[in-house]
Structures are given as structure tokens and as C-alpha cells.
Amino acid sequence: MLDTARGRPARGVPVVLSTRDRPRGEWRPHAEGTTDADGRCRGFPPLPAGTVEARLVFSTATHPVARVGEDDTPFFPEVAVAFAVTPGEHHHVPLLLAPHGYTVYRGSCGLLSTSDAADDAPS
């Protein structure tokens, strides 16, 4: 996660990873973590076999970039990003957060992997 207002990684942001095994099915909590000094949430376990969609929920309310206005009310108290999972591939989903907007894209280096690719999962 990148704080685009400061041009620096967003450290200390809680992130929850959930999965589902069919489109529009129930979300199942899979792992929790916190962004590190590089703005990354490392160490998530491989996604369960059969996962077709994953969701990352970034709890941004406590990060300074989210607090705007005179009363510091967060405009985006959380950002939820759901995406399709391709078995055997790694998934890197960067979040760029600004006070009044955010951008998400599919990155090129994998941090999440399916259990089919557990041997290639990052440490």
C-alpha cells in the first residue's frame, strides 16, 4: 500500500484476506496481517485449493492519509478489493491511497498464491 499524498509506503495498516470457492459465494476469512515498512502485507498463507475469488480489506481509517477535513473524519475508512484468482499464479494487488481517492491494479510480483503453487509461494 502506498500513501500517494506523501509518496511513501503506508505502514501499519491492518489487512484481512478472505476467499470464496464460487462466484458470489460466501466470503471465508483466510488470513490477517498488517502492512510493513514497505507497505506490503507479507506472509499470507497460500490460498485454499478451489479458490476462485479473493478479497483484501484494508482498514485505512487510522492511517493519516485517510483522515481529511477539520474533524479528521476518514473519507475511506476501509478499502475492499475483490479479484478473480487464477490457479497456479501469484497475485500482487497494490493499493495506492490518497485522501479522496484510491487506485488498485494487478501488480507483477506475486504475494498471494494458490495452494496449487505452494512450492513457489514467497516466504
UniProtKB/TrEMBL annotation:
Tree of life domain: Bacteria
Signal peptide span: none
Residue ranges, compositional bias (Basic and acidic residues): 19-41
Pfam families named in the record: Transthyretin
Residue ranges constituting the Transthyretin/hydroxyisourate hydrolase domain according to the UniProt record: 2-107
GO biological process: purine nucleobase metabolic process
Region feature Disordered, mapped onto this chain: 18-43
Gene3D superfamilies linked to this entry: Transthyretin/hydroxyisourate hydrolase domain
UniProt xrefs under PANTHER family: 5-HYDROXYISOURATE HYDROLASE (PTHR10395:SF7), URICASE AND TRANSTHYRETIN-RELATED (PTHR10395)
Name of the molecule in the record: Transthyretin/hydroxyisourate hydrolase domain-containing protein
Organism placement in taxonomy: Bacteria, Bacillati, Actinomycetota, Actinomycetes, Kitasatosporales
